[in-house]
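Changelog entry: the FAD-dependent oxidoreductase record was regenerated in this release. Current contents:
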Amino acid sequence: MSRAMPIPRYVPPKHRSYDVVIVGGAAVGSSVAYWLGEEMRGKLSVLVVERDSSYAFSSTALSTSAIRQQYSNPINVQISQFGVEIIRSFQDRMAPYFPGEPAPDLGFKEYGYLYCCSPEGAASAKARVEMQRSLGAHTVFLEPEALQAQFPWLNVEDLGGGSWGAQAEGWFDSMGLLMGFRRGARALGAEYVDNAVTGLGVESGRVTTVQLATGEVISCGTLVNAAGPRAQQVAAMAGLSIPVAPFKRYSFVFSSATPIPGRMPNVIDLSGTFVRPEGPLFLTGNTPGDDGPADYDDFAPRHEEFEDAIWPALYHRIPSFDALKVQQAWTGHYEMNMLDHNGIVGFHPEVTNFMFANGFSGHGLQQSPATGRGVMELIVHGGFRTLDLSPMCYERIPANRPFMEDAVI
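Regenerated structure tokens:
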């Protein structure tokens, strides 16, 4: 759900040259700016260009703001583990940048995820759980009887079981994370400008200039593409291409005549529909029937998605959901990587100062802490020093070498 900020009066960039220009100032871009500031302490000049300073249409603001470790790809498990570490410690980490006022409390609801699996998918689900546990995750596999005992409101008749992460999974304040990173980045010297990038100058295999919508031309040492669903637009300005496009996702908040007792996790149904509590209400969504690339500015709702697909799935899985009423709905965009649903992180091999931080396919918010730190390491140190994100490199894209993530919601 979007919580828009007031749009400030336009202030042009202070300089005409920056060491790093970041295109996109939402969660990923602001995380990059923050980690650069933490590492370099003013030794690099950083400009963040954000086209929507209200963040009203950003994927960060319109996301469902959740984090999980239940992935099929080990690196994504580790990325989320670092994300949880940051979320839990965020208020203390950001305290120096909020003098005289409380730093953001992200309100982490550590209620877990519950992935339902079919009888045919039980063996694969158990293998994923073992992989996740080998990396330190708290996921457990529950057979149908144990699942019914733990969650008596769940219909398990057609299930082969479910994987449940009772710790280090849940949901949190997305805008609190974004505004904390942004505030920290600015306190550490990053400059933000309310503007759009309309062109890039490329000479001898390097981005040399950034053209802004207001006419300014900025020289840059490194260009970071953190433009979310508009990532391909920015890549094309440098003559590059990535298989990233906006995909619409519809979110619905509803009330139920029958409450769900106990602590309800985020339930992922076989149909792909998810549902979780939001105070006395519930939040739900799915992979919609009209799934596919959308226009960059298309945020039109599809209310029939709830009636036609989501409600039947909810009622089947949770029979208590027999009397529901939608209270609120909104549409956001995933920056979908159509090759393998995984992020693209790293420099381009030919336009050597063009950095990708794109294509996270719906999990960019939860991966923004590790992505920002990894991008900083590549820029400052020339290689990863903490998590090795090299399997997410750009080179796999033209090679058509998928680095798959199957657990995409």
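The CA atoms of residues 20 and 46 lie 5 Å apart.
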